[in-house]
Amino acid sequence: MGSALSFHLGRLAVLLLQPLRRMRTESLKSGAMLVSDNLETRAHCGQNTPAEPKFAAQRLICECFYTDNYHIKEVNRHVSYVDRRSFENSEEGRKILTPLGTARRETIIAALEQESRRRHNLLAEALDRSKHIRAHYKPLHPEVYELRAEWIHPELEAIRATLFSEGGSSSQASKAEVRALRNRLREYPPGVFSFPVFTRDFCQRFVAEARHFNESDMPKARPNSMNKEGVLLEECGYYEGLLDPLLDKYLKPIAAQLYPDYGGATLDHHRSFTVKYHEDGDVELAYHYDDSEVTLNVCLGEQFEGGELLFGSMRDCASQTSRYPLRHDVGTGVLHRGHHMHEAVAVDSGVRLNLIMWLRSSTERNFIQPEHGRQRPVKIPPTRGSKAAWCCHFNEQMK
Ligand SMILES: O=C(O)CCC(=O)C(=O)O
Ligand SMILES: [Fe+2]
């Protein structure tokens, strides 16, 4: 309770400072927007490490993040939004608002304003939460915050070995190595690959740790714009010890071979979170595409019926009628392109918990940017995470 109170006092301070932050970002020239400097990332919270800020990372956020792709539920449309006046005066805004009565119009504007505020406050709030968690959270299973050999399913180790069997690097895998890799993976539907990732032991501990965090009074954010339940794993300290190494050592070498045209070889950062479905919370996830080049979706448990993953077509494909259901066992990961449309059907009973990694490539995102007519510096960070300044293209449905 005490830590919850101190967190809320901290939030109050951030809200008071918010106008200053906004002024600062708004005063920056168009192009990449330096949203918040001196962003610290937390020390790994599983180890009770002293809460010293380890480094200062600068984050670049694409200006379109604040303006593009606002979803209006009432009319199921995505729009651009800067502020009320310009929206009401825009052609797009007029088309949507004019046929509606005052009450519905006001509801829509209020929701757009709320979403705009949410986006502007996002980084500062995330930083607050992670500082608070680092300082106050006592994990039940500190061991799941690091990638131990025993957490990795032996099959994934074997899959990785196929790519290095001739002693080279995965980026120069031979044809034989790539064939061997594909032979070990299940591909269904085309372009969607399943393979074991974690051992059951890891999944059980991770689920228990997630429950422990959930039951704590730590501050929690929504994992993305569509799921309400689950946690953002960066804030909880899972990146440095567990997920960054998982990406570097296993996922990137595999994705480099499977998705060379979708940034697979240059994946250098990720947004990772858990999603949770059960009768009394989120039960399903609507058809969508991800804000990622490649996504890894691992089923962690717990016990549930229903909740299958369904895959459709790529986002830009005109026909979106067929759906391919995928069985997803505990510990298994499904790797797919972020723009491969998919949904999760309702759980009939029990609790379904999944680990989602939206894997991203700065190279890819900076490369596509000019096509969208944005003016931004093309800045490709040397590495991900602490040292990375990174710019994203957020023209996506889920954030
Ligand atoms: O619930 C699932 O398995 C799907 C989650 C998902 O698609 C996402 O978070 O992007
Ligand atoms: Fe998704």
From TrEMBL:
Domain Fe2OG dioxygenase: start-end pairs: 268-361
What's in the keyword line of the UniProt record? Dioxygenase, Iron, Metal-binding, Oxidoreductase, Vitamin C
A molecular function annotated in GO for this UniProt entry is:
oxidoreductase activity, acting on paired donors, with incorporation or reduction of molecular oxygen
- At the top level of its lineage, which domain of life is listed? Eukaryota
Known Pfam families for this protein? OGFOD2-like
Q: Matching PANTHER family, A to Z?
A: 2-OXOGLUTARATE AND IRON-DEPENDENT OXYGENASE DOMAIN-CONTAINING PROTEIN 2
Name of the protein in question? Fe2OG dioxygenase domain-containing protein
Which species is the source of this protein?
Cymbomonas tetramitiformis
